[in-house]
Amino acid sequence: MLQARRLGNELFVGVHSDEAILENKGPTVMTLNERVAAVEACRWVTRCVPCAPYVTSLPWVTHYGCQYVVHGDDITSDSNGNDCYRFVKAAGRFRVVKRTPGISTTDLVGRMLLCTKGHFVNSVEGTLAGEEGSGSEEERRKSATDLLQRIQDYATDESGLQPGPQVWIWAGSNVAKLNHMVEEGGSFETLIRGKVPKQGQRIVYVDGGFDLFSSGHIEFLRQVIDYEESEGHQRGWYDPEQRDLRFKNYGEDYPPAYIVAGIHDDSVINHWKGLNYPIMNIFERGLCVLQCRYIHAVVFSAPFCPSRSYLESMPFGTPNAVYHGPTTFIPLTYDPYTAPKEMGIFKQIESHDFQHVNAGEIVDRILKSREAFEARQRAKLEKSVVEELAQSNERPK
């Protein structure tokens, strides 16, 4: 979607219905509403179009005023084995972008079914320095360079071309990341320089594992925005004279809050959830959060308990508010938000329609339909052979 956004001025994203996916690909992991919520939250998406046809037709594309259809450099076929984009290709209105390597729905389902831990990241700093990971020293360095470039690409604004979110790594001890008894301010190392808070914006902090970044996480972040907009109305943020002043000083308007999202290490998540959680490693989870339009900065390796020392050491000062949502998946033995509560800055997001959608819920869905998803995996492999043959026939001789 980022590559597609960079090709034009607007990006419309079609989302297939559950029925269309079942017929052509196999059972869905998330419902249509949950997938629509995910697409609508992507910073680079201008508009989400639910129930898009599985085979893209010219009238459909033209109806929405789209000049081109963009897809990855692999072929997607329908249930009859025909190319889903054959009509727009024939009309010269198809554009190809590089397929993002490393992770897919198929990969994630495989991790869930096999309960593997090979995707875990031991050290964010070590991985980005090319010191950790598989392969030779040269391969690790190349992988680190590619990963850093991807983080920088994701830390862009709505156009996908200009700086967007700020990205830090919190350098603190492993004990402080996990233990609520340890007070440690640590230090914030800048990984990507992005947009900083503007005059009058409240600094808001949220944190979590954000595993299998789903509608539950997205709705929580969206509600944080809603709460802060409501607070902005109370303090006159949307008064015409205040808006005019922001335009005068900055040449643009901006929201009343600057949202910073802390993301916990794999080892911290695994300590609390056990098994092979998190299903996505910290970089995969971080990229998911980074592309979300509801956040403005990301902290990798954030401590599980935001202590007073940690909050007071944050780059833009002590947050005005620390939000937390309705969590039922982690069996806590203590309250990790004691410090922000004592500081009078803690705010609780109430229940919402997607609060039950978390990593555990998604894994349960797959395990309850294990046979169907294993069949999906086999069908996917068989289908990929046919698609690869069709793709090779399209390549220039």
Automatic annotation (TrEMBL):
Gene Ontology CC annotation, any one: cytoplasm
GO terms under biological process: phosphatidylethanolamine biosynthetic process
Entries under Pfam families matching the protein: CTP_transf_like
Pathway where this protein functions: Phospholipid metabolism; phosphatidylethanolamine biosynthesis; phosphatidylethanolamine from ethanolamine: step 2/3; Lipid metabolism
Cytoplasm recorded as keyword: no
Example GO molecular function: ethanolamine-phosphate cytidylyltransferase activity
InterPro entries per UniProt: Cyt_trans-like (IPR004821), Ect1/PCYT2 (IPR044608), Rossmann-like_a/b/a_fold (IPR014729)
Enzyme Commission number: 2.7.7.14
Occurrences of domain Cytidyltransferase-like (ranges): 3-109
Family assignment from sequence similarity: Belongs to the cytidylyltransferase family.
Record's protein name: ethanolamine-phosphate cytidylyltransferase
Organism: Aspergillus sclerotialis
